[in-house]
Amino acid sequence: MDFRDLAVPILQAPIGSVATEDLAVAVSNAGAMGSLAMTWAEPQAAAAAVARIKARTSAPFFVNFVLAFEPKAFDAVLDEGVPVVTLSWGHSADLIARAHAKNVSVGVQVGTVQGAQRAARDGADFLICQGVEAGGHVQSTTPLKTLLPSVVEQAAGLPVVATGGLADGGDLKWALDRGASAAMLGTRFVATLESQAHTQYKRAIADASSTDTSFTVCFDGGWPNATHRVLRNSTLEQWEAAGCPPHGCRPGEEDVIARKPVGDDVLRYDDTPAMASLTGEAMDCALFAGLSVDKITDIPSASECVMRIWRECEFSD
């Protein structure tokens, strides 16, 4: 993957179930690189989504698979001609080889230098260097400012994408100046018009500061033991007030706090984010957000967001 082919060296992080096809298309058509999360998608639905995006943009985009779960739709998206795949929370030389057999580029998210070295050995085409500042589920325990130079040094010539706590043009320039080929932004794109995050969730991101976030394991329903960064809310505060008890001993553990139009109800500690489609107490759900909230104050369109960040980068000292 040559990020010099992008008009704007920005990747939209997959951002789980709040990502939409509209968001991915808007980001890619603005000159950056949009994405969709495909970890829990069924093969037929995943292939159809890729086909629809390809019909709406000729620009590159990618789909992500979290390897803590079975990548059921992996071969389906390859067969449909997805241009790029990224892998996180794991390594798989086999999946990379299968992608390469279809001429699909693969990026691997890493949180350590050792992880970067292994991903390079596995055949990754680029590395995604995640710092602990990131929102959502976070592999890393190291600040990006410490990790990025080390990963760039050990990347053996592979392009490196910086991610974790990045939101504006100054952040993009900082990453490029330190050897990154591009930056990946997640929380910034949650707070855009095209994301399917709940309106109150988007506003909470725009109103928050970094001190309103917490690095925790509170919202572990559906993904046990995975660390994540969220905005503080009543669910987190109840759990902390009780002494952060383990599964089976948490206050309100069986509470149904929200309902989906289709599918299971959302329980208090589930990892389901506050989506626009939920009814009930959506703001008691996981409000995934990174330290970048300090620099997010509005809810623009995705294309406006991309263009603004690039202008800021060009004129940044």
From TrEMBL:
Keyword Flavoprotein: yes
Superkingdom of origin organism: Bacteria
GO molecular function: nitronate monooxygenase activity
Record keywords, A-Z: Flavoprotein, FMN, Oxidoreductase
Keyword Oxidoreductase (UniProt): yes
InterPro entries, alphabetized: Aldolase_TIM (IPR013785), NMO (IPR004136)
Stated name of the protein: 2-nitropropane dioxygenase
Organism: Chromohalobacter japonicus
Source lineage: Bacteria, Pseudomonadati, Pseudomonadota, Gammaproteobacteria, Oceanospirillales
